[in-house]
């Protein structure tokens, strides 16, 4: 699939020298190679965040969903991310639709960005597809009626570890589930601009984050795109769900507030329903707790193992 060509507006051809290739670090390559299918299975869920300004006013929303799909006849992961909001009162948005392999290869991706300014619209589109050991990239940028088109191709062997925007969102979910980011985590990436760029990741560690009236423990990942430049701080819950996403230097700060609380209430209702359906669970736990307090063992874990050993089917 090619990026559609528009008729009518004048076209300016992009002329530029061939950019130098950017090498991935060995640490990054090894990290991606170590990702197991079971880890990717845990990444199959949806996130939804509310975008708020520093003053607390709502500006829009951000969502990411990952599920299983096929690309041609090849099993893969399908990722769709949508961001809508305003910057200084101007409507803007980004949509990413990507088909990704288990090795974080981008089989195909469409990306659309726009900003509606007073009197004209600025937008960028890019289409990436992998074909015959090559990565083909078509880009269109439009500022008002002036349209610029550009096509590039890269040999896969020359851009080892090449990461798209969709693959980056999925990769950070894996980092969040592992709660680790390797040192020197650097990969080549394709931004909507006219060249390859370098993206690096580093751990921000664990901290307590206020989400509405709740305080939760989160793990942070920093993502830096060097040539743009752009810097994001993303914090994740223990199950990989995104709790906050902030672009430093941007007036926007995305926080999962009501969405997180809705999910918490849903889980609590589900747990309460399960307890009602299995009253024997309450009796079993009450007996165990009473016996534990009577014995007061030094090694609680060993005591618990011995107590429940007769219940084991093996």
From TrEMBL:
It is found in: Cell membrane; Cytoplasm, Cytoskeleton; Nucleus. It comes from Muraenolepis orangiensis (Patagonian moray cod). The lineage of its organism: Eukaryota, Metazoa, Chordata, Craniata, Vertebrata. Pfam families: CATIP_N. One of its GO terms (biological process) is actin filament polymerization. Residues 27-251 form the Ciliogenesis-associated TTC17-interacting protein N-terminal domain. Belongs to the CATIP family. This is Ciliogenesis-associated TTC17-interacting protein. InterPro entries: CATIP_N (IPR048777), DD_CATIP (IPR047501). CDD domains: DD_CATIP. Keywords: Cell membrane, Cilium biogenesis/degradation, Cytoplasm, Cytoskeleton, Membrane, Nucleus. PANTHER family: CILIOGENESIS-ASSOCIATED TTC17-INTERACTING PROTEIN, RIIA DOMAIN-CONTAINING PROTEIN 1.
